Each structure stands twice: as C-alpha cells, then as structure tokens.
Amino acid sequence: MMQKRRLGRTDIYITPIGLGTWQLSEGQGFHKYMWAGISAETTNSIIKTALDGGISWFDTAEIYGNGRSEKGLASALKAAGKNNGDVVIATKWWPLMRRASSIRNTIDERLSCLKPFAIDLYQVHNPYSFASIGAQMNAMADLCEAGKIRSIGVSNFSAKMMRKAHDVLARRGVSLASNQVKYNLLARGIEDNGVLDAAKELGITIICYSPLEMGLLSGKFHNDPNLLRSRPRGRRNAIGKKLEASRPLIDVLSKIAEAHGATVSQVALSWLVTFSGDMVVAIPGASKPKHAEESAGAMKVALTCEEMERIDRVARVR
Q: Whole-angstrom Cα distance, residue 65 to residue 236?
C-alpha cells in the first residue's frame, strides 16, 4: 500500500488516491448530464467501501447539487461510524458571478452541510470570479485565521494564477496547498503549460480530477462500446470521441494489468500518482461500490520504471 503524502506544505497527510464525490449531486440541474442519481443506500456503501480500502480523504463542492454532495458525504461518513478528524474533507467555493465577500458569507453554510465534519481543504473552484485572486486569497486566509478551515487550495488555475495565489497567501503566512486540475494519461496539458513545474517548485500538491477520463481509461467501453448507450449524454459524447484513438494505450495498460493481477483502471491510476512523484494525487469518482474498491486497490499496484515509461510513450502517440 502506498504511503500517505503531505498535502502541499501543510500538516495534513492524505492517501495518494482520494474519492471524488461529484456523483453524489443526486442528478440535479446540469449534473444530470454527467451523473445519474444515486440512492442514499448506494452512497453509504460507496463511502464505506472506499474507507475499507484505505482511502482517507474525500473531495466535494458547493456546486455539486447545491450542497447535496456535501450532505450525502457527511451522512455516509456518519453511517460508516466516522467522526470529525477521522478523515480529510476537501470542498470548494463556487466563484462564478460572485465577489470575495461570498467566501466569508457562505462558509457557515458549507460547514452546516458537512456537519459534523470540518473543512480541511477549502478550494476556489475556478478562476472566474468578479474578485481578484488577491481578494479571494485574502478572504480564504481570513477563514484560516478564524479557524473555519485548515488549508487553502485552488482549482483550474493556470501557472501564473497559481503563483499569484501562492504569493498573496505567503504574505499572510499561509501556504497554497493545492491546485485541482484535469490530469490523466489522455489529458496531459499541465506537463506543458507550466502548472506541473510551478507546483513542484512551490511545493503545491496537484489534485487530479477526471483521472480515468470519465471511465474511458478503464477499458470497459473499448471492450463493449454498447455500454455508452446507458451513460448520460454529456459523458457519452465526451467518451465516444476518444474511443478509437485511445485503443493502443488501453491495449498496453491491459497487458501490464494482467502481469500485476490488476485492472486497467488500477494501472492508469497507479501511473498517474507515481510518474511525477508524490506531489500528484488523484480523486476518481465512483457510482458503484466496486468502483471505489477498484480505485483503492490501485494503491497496491507497484509499477516498474520500465512499465511507467512504456505507458508514457504510448500515451503520447495519438
């Protein structure tokens, strides 16, 4: 089992694999185009399975069903017998059409939705706000000083934006813990746009969302393309466009998975949280307990340097 990793330069330690909980938004609003609704019973089972597999942290957000994901996560953790402090909780403030004052004005609602669990990592969900990065980071630092949150992160920030956020927080004596971005074997933009290099330089953890490209990197759609018909329209369209181009990569992942007695998903996740060092972690989602079990199991897959380089080479040829 992979050891826990330090979140940025904070005193928080997390497993290399966490669990993303966008799928707990109950299929409300635009989320229905990505996720079907999940029952409370299934939610409880997913969270319990993740915990049993060794996953120590969970990522959610205000925008995921207007707090429904946060509430569902908290309820499931309580059902699993967990108390505040037993796990690490990350959530996000939604900045679109808002000013920095909203960070302070809505924090109590976030805490209420997650009650009794504290917010260990509070993230700005994207850079599209009416407020400057400086104003947002200062508002976040105020929450840290008030004891409302333990650490601060951003999401979808460019290298320049990330550096700005880091500098503003440093002047307040606070570190920028993380930047949550899309990163996987088929989406490697952060390797070229400066985000990964800046994160390494500044000691900022990269949290990878969509680490399996919405299930495409599981290989299941390559084995049975008809499975796409049962997926929500947004996911169906996104996956279908990349199916054939990714087949050579899936073939290599399959061979390596067979050698390790693992699944294609587990190999793809193991590569992701190992190839660039221990400052990269991932938050795959799970709509069924078996998905959480499989993701947790990725932490037991130890790829060789040769295997990781082979995967890297094939992934770059598309």
A: 21
